[in-house]
Amino acid sequence: MELSIRPRRLRSSDTLRRMVRETRVSPESLIYPLFIVEGENLVEPIPSLDGQWRYSPDRVCEAVEACRAVGVNKVLLFGIPAHKDACGSEAWNPDGVVQQGIRAIKAKYPDCYVITDVCMCEYTDHGHCGILCGHTVDNDKTLEVLSKTALSHVQAGADMVAPSDMMDGRVAAIRRILDENGYETVPIMAYSAKYASAFYGPFRDAAGSAPAFGDRRGYQMDPHNRREAIRECALDVEEGADILMVKPALSYLDIIREVSDTFDLPLCAYQVSGEYAMIKAAGAAGLIDEYRVMCESALSIFRAGAGILITYFAKELAEAMGKGDLG
């Protein structure tokens, strides 16, 4: 058969396939989530997240060192305090668990890029992401404590803050307090399109942040909605966000693509705990090739339009990139 156009020509060897790849990634695009628990000399395995641990502030640098060994130099910190109350007051404690963790990391690895999650769910005794008025989260009162929390993180040495609460106006409130205190150059990565997803279960176990009653559908997005994600991102752009985020990733690849096409800010995606846990469990059961599925799932997120990926697989993906299996 006479065919002048044969796409298979460019698939004929590994060298050629690598040369013409459309999607290229590197360890620089990866962020590793870290759980910091109050206490001393603690490295606790997380049963629902195979291969992940909670670290006390004095041991957290061990996790950072393991990341750096494979080329991952960005971490996202989540705090688990010993004391929780209705307003989550430990969140902005200058000597709180995240603040301790930031200082420990920066003292040993000053060039490690430290991002902090800014939310109340890990700190409140009711597990919701803000201040309650009855059984409803009060949006505007929550902005006050989110702002104080973000400022305390930056004062402890955080390089970037990432509000994940989904309160209206939180980016503007945080930008205002940072600017007023001389932190105009500290960027905000907004959890802009964060859906009320069923994929968060293992994280809530890891952080002890499951709601004591109800759910979070009153502030996180309805999974049915696409246009609303664009509206949320547009509002965060107007309020001063520097990086947008879509969370979760795999079930929302269409949202990642649309946000990427619509806005010119950098776009992050979060491959959340449930996505990680499913791959690990299926791999352990022999149902899939865990390594290949890990690579393929990450690649799909980048191909959809994300330029940054938060993932519990960050170290393994960096190693895969080094082997040329991804990137």
Describe this entry's structure for a reader.
It catalyses: 2 5-aminolevulinate = porphobilinogen + 2 H2O + H(+). Its EC number is 4.2.1.24. It is an enzyme of class 4 (lyase). This protein is an alpha/beta fold. Helices cover 38% and strands 17% of the residues.
Task: Please outline the helices and strands.
Blueprint: H1 14-19, E1 30-37, E2 43-45, E3 53-55, H2 60-69, E4 74-80, H3 97-108, E5 113-118, E6 132-133, E7 136-137, H4 139-156, E8 160-163, H5 170-180, E9 189-194, H6 201-207, H7 227-239, E10 243-247, H8 253-262, E11 267-271, H9 273-284, H10 290-304, E12 308-311, H11 314-323
Parallel strand pairs: 1-3, 1-4, 1-12, 4-5, 5-8, 9-10, 10-11, 11-12
Antiparallel strand pairs: 2-3, 6-7
Structure classification: alpha/beta
Taking the sheet with the most strands, its summary is: 10 strands, mixed
- Shape designation: globular
Radius of gyration: 20 Å
Uncertain segments of ≥5 residues (pLDDT<50)? none
Report, as a whole number of angstroms, the end-to-end distance.
35 Å
Order of helices and strands: HEEEHEHEEEHEHEHHEHEHHEH
| Nearest-integer average pLDDT | 94
* Helical content (DSSP H or I, runs of 4+): 25-40%
Strand percentage: 15-25%
Number of strands: 12
Number of helices: 11
Subunit structure: Homooctamer.
Family: Belongs to the ALAD family.
Keywords: Heme biosynthesis, Lyase, Magnesium, Metal-binding, Porphyrin biosynthesis, Zinc
Pfam families: ALAD
